[in-house]
Each structure stands twice: as structure tokens, then as C-alpha cells.
Amino acid sequence: MRQILNIYLSVLLACLFSSCLPNKTDQNRNTITVVTLRGPSAMSIINLLDNPDIDEEIFFDIILLDEPSQAKPYLFKNKADLAFLPGTMSVLLYNREVPYKLAGVPVWGTLYLYADSTIQSWEDLQNQEIYSMGRGITPDIVLRYLLDAHNLEPGKNVTLNYSFPTHEALANASAAGKAPIAVLSEPLGTFASNKNKTLKSVFNLSAEWRKIHQDTAVLFQTALVINTLFAEENPVLAKKVLDHIEAQVNSVNQNIGKAAKLATIYDLLPDSAMAVEAYHRSEIHYVKAFEIKDQLLSFLTVFHTFNPDIIGGQLPDDDFFYSYAESDTL
Hints:
Blueprint: H1 2-16, E1 23-26, E2 29-37, H2 40-44, H3 46-50, E3 58-65, H4 72-76, E4 82-86, H5 87-95, E5 100-108, E6 111-115, E7 129-131, H6 138-149, E8 159-161, H7 167-175, E9 182-185, H8 188-195, E10 200-204, H9 205-212, E11 222-227, H10 228-233, H11 235-251, H12 256-265, H13 272-281, E12 283-288, H14 293-306, H15 324-329
Parallel strand pairs: 2-3, 2-4, 7-8
Antiparallel strand pairs: 1-2, 4-11, 5-11, 5-12, 6-9, 6-10
């Protein structure tokens, strides 16, 4: 009898932890698993994080992670229906045939260059040391591209320092005065400048990018990807889920005060005043990926030219861009 019971429990546990998507929580309810990163990604769906039970058919199970690498087990094992990822990571995974497509872009360019008041122009960076997080990732390549556009060459007339390998480590170093000129992402830039009053925002790197790429001016920082298996098997549900995400992302701008309070409750920022500032400095608004395919490809071309390996060796094909029209017609 005990052996039979053990077998039954083993089968039950296997079903509970299977990768079938979506999971039914009751007869009429689907659990949609969403992986997101602390920072702008989580800030963009803070209202959903606070109220995941917004639909009689859908419950959003939101998993908060600290680093992009922590998302890989969920993606490789098809454990996530949706995931918020760095833009270049979404392309890299697609080129490696991980079954996720780009559904939308919820966050645009939260990168700023911080320094003291002696730095007020690109020319002032001549012969200076700039701290950047992670060689070869989005902040680094955007910085290098903009430096080149202003005749500043790393290793020649400007120095890049990668001593602090994560966003959080670099922000803490800047707050402590150990990285006096640094590229920081929101909301950590706001955190560092509140701790260290000598730090000022010198450049919004998104704005600087737009000055150069006026016709294709997008800084593809955050991707929302959808599980291809889930989308193909549940096209109507997939569209409904994405519509909910779009509405939730755009809702934060309608009441930033509320969003800021929630950001402190969920430990994204230490206080509401700082959170309000971070929201104003983060470009959060949802755009469907297939609507801006050409602009996104233009942005990714910069990365492909710099180092093709960053995005998996090649630009993504048209199939990378998940079209809501696909789900409408199925």
C-alpha cells in the first residue's frame, strides 16, 4: 500500500512541476508564468505584480529575478510563457533556437551617464576614465558607439573600466564615490545619485542615440518574449495575455505616484520619492514588436557590426517578430 501511495505521489508531483503551458489552476483559469527582472522590467508591470488576479480566465504568476542569467533555466525548459529580457539576449536565444519570439518592447533606454559637475559635454570626457558594467553588453556597446560618434576612442583618449561587473555593483560603487564617471541604468542611477549628491545625470543615452539615428531612433533595451509553443497552441489566449501586459505597462504612466508606492512595497526602490524620480527617468511604454521591426533591426545592426556573437552571429529573420495578427486569424 505504501509503495502504491509513493508512486501516486510521484506522478502527482511530476504533473505539478511539468512544463506544459499554460497550467490550469481550476476549471476556467489559466496560470501564465511571467519571468521578469528587478529594475525597469518589474517597474513596468508593477500594477500586475500587485494584482495578478485581473481576469476570470487568467492568473499571472510573476517570478522576480535579479540577473538575466537566472532566466535561462525557465526559458531552456519552457517553464515561462512570457519573459522580460535584455533586448540582445532575446535575439541571442532566438538564434540558438530557444522557442521564444519577440512580442513587444516595454522599456526604452534607461541608460544615463553620471558624473560630477565638471563633466558637461562629450569633449569633457577627453582623457577621463568611464566605468561601464559588462564588456560587450548593451550599456557598453551603446557607450562605445556614442564615444566613437564624438571622436573618443577607448584606449586612446578615453579609458573604460569594467571593475564592477553588475548593474548593482556599479551603482553601489558610484554611490560610494568609487566610480565617479559611470553609465548607470534606472532605477539604480537614481539610487546612486540620491546617495552621492555630487553625481549628476550628464547624458540620457537614449536622447543621444536619437540625435544620431533620427529616422530609426529606438534604443532596444528590454524585450518581452512569448513562448512559441504556448502561442501556437493557444493563439486566442496568447493575444489576450499580451493585451493585458500592454495595458498594464502603459498604466504605470497614468498614476506614477501609485506605481512608485508599489515599487517600494515590492522592494524595487527604498522610498517613494526616489521611485517617482526613477519612473520619470525611465522610458516605459509598450510597443508591439512587429510594428517597429525595421527600427529594431537598425538598432541590432549596430551590435552585429560591433560583434556578431553578441546576438548569436546573425540578425534575426522575420519570424523572430511575433505578430498579434497571427493569433487573430487562428
